Each structure stands twice: as structure tokens, then as C-alpha cells.
Amino acid sequence: MTLIAQITDLHLRPRGLACYRVSDTNMFAERAVRALRSQTPKPDAIVLTGDLTDRSDPREYAVARELLSQLDMPVFLVPGNHDSSEGMRREMRDFPGISETTAGKIHYTADIGEVQLVALDTHLLGRPQGEVGEDQLRWLQDALSKNTRPTLIALHHPPALSGIVHMDNMGLLDADALAEVIAPYDHVERLVCGHLHRPIIASFAGKVMTLAPSTGHQVVLDLTENGPAMFNFEPAAYFLHYHSQKTGVVTHMAYVENFPGPHHFFADEGVVWPGDET
User: Fold this and answer.
1) What is the dihedral of CA 234, 239, 240, 241, to 10 degrees?
2) Under CATH, domain 2-255 is a member of which superfamily?
3) What is the pLDDT of residues 157-173, one digit of tens each?
4) Structure pTM?
5) Cα dihedral angle (155, 159, 160, 166), rounded to 10 degrees?
6) Strands, E, within 8-43: which ranges?
7) Exposed e or buried b for every residue in 133-146, given b needs 16+ CB within 10 A?
């Protein structure tokens, strides 16, 4: 079996600064790292699907390096709209895959156990929307044709719409072109995304697309046409993408916080309940 943990949208800030004045994203990210370190069974790898930083500030990348160095498994990164491709390449060059593309968008493949990870860069300089781009799409088609392992495609901007209008307006501009590339490949089992700060599942190009919630603040669930852009502090979580030959890829959500329990369902075994005397 293969177990890949996904975290997203950390929005790290320079030490001592909050995100959007009230969100202590560094503290939230530290809690997420502690949760991942205690995860049983241990993930084979971590995939971080963008917005590692809030402003692509070198001080934020320094926080990221210090934080992610506490994880004793490979950490694979893709840029989000709050990062930058060049900033991530320069500041996170020691992380797997980052140095494989020396200019332009960051894209690479990695074999993790039985699964192939395909990392795509949807960062679009100066804009909140995302774009894969023609060059990266040609590379993706070549990568998918050469390796037929069960495949996860990691990208920041989700290609399918969510119904949260203000976030969909910052979506993937060339989603149709991406769909055309991946639709023929049955071994693409999951697209794993971030950006929306909510757990969302949708269909795209005949595949399953999952959006992981943020390790910090979450986008308010508002499906009205003119819903404002707001965030709250619903419980932070991460995804675990589990693969075995029997199950294929199955995605579980795990909360960062600790909750009461676990309790045995049959802790009172031996107690005779009324009506069960016989």
C-alpha cells in the first residue's frame, strides 16, 4: 500500500505577522506538521498543493524550510497563486523535483510506492487565476503516455467549478485544455488541488478531483450568487490518499485538532441489556 498526505494553503508569514490581520497561519501550520508526524501509519510522502507562502517573501520561505524540515518523509511542492514559480525554485531548491525545471513553470514526476505523482505549476504572474500553459500541457501528455502507474496529478487551482462564485472567478483558465489531455488516460485516478480552503469533491474529465482544506483558515461555504469573500476558523484538516491494488486510490480527511476518544464500540461488553436476557 501507498499513503500520501496532502496539505495545502499554509499561507506562511514572516515570524510575528498574522495573515489577514487575524489568522496565525504559522501556528496553524506547526500544528499540522505535528499531526503529520504522529500520523499512523506514517505517510510515504507529503504533497503540498500551493500557497506555501502568503506573499512569496524570502522570510516566509525561511519559515517554510524550518517547518518542513521537521518531517521525515519526502515533501513535494507545487506553487500557488500566493507563491511564485521563481521564488519557490530559488528558496526551496533542495526539495525533490524543484530543481528539475531550471526556468519557467515547475513541473516534475515522482514515483511514490505504487503511485506516480505528477506535479503541475498553475501560478500566473500577477493574477489570482491559474494556468497550466501549452508547454506544460505537452509535457504532461508525454509524461502520462510514458508511465501508466496509478497517477495523482497535483496542482493548486482546481479545474472544476465549485459553486463558490468568488473563488471560481479565480479558477484555472485553461481547464478545457487540461481536460482534453488527461481524459484518455485511465490511470489518472485523482486530481489533488488546493486554493479553495474547503474540502470539495467533484468530477473533471471523467476523473475524481479532490480539494483539500487549508491547514489554517477556511473559506466560508456560501453558494449564493453574490456571496462575499469571507473566511472563518472551521477545523483545519488534511487529506490522506491511500492506494492499494484492491482499492485503487481512496481519499480520507483527517483533522489537525485532537478530539475526545477513541472509545471502543463494545467497551460495555458483558453488560446484559433489558430484553437480551435470553
Assistant:
1) 150
2) Metallo-dependent phosphatases (3.60.21.10)
3) 999 999 999 999 999 99
4) 0.94
5) 90
6) none
7) beebbebbeebbee
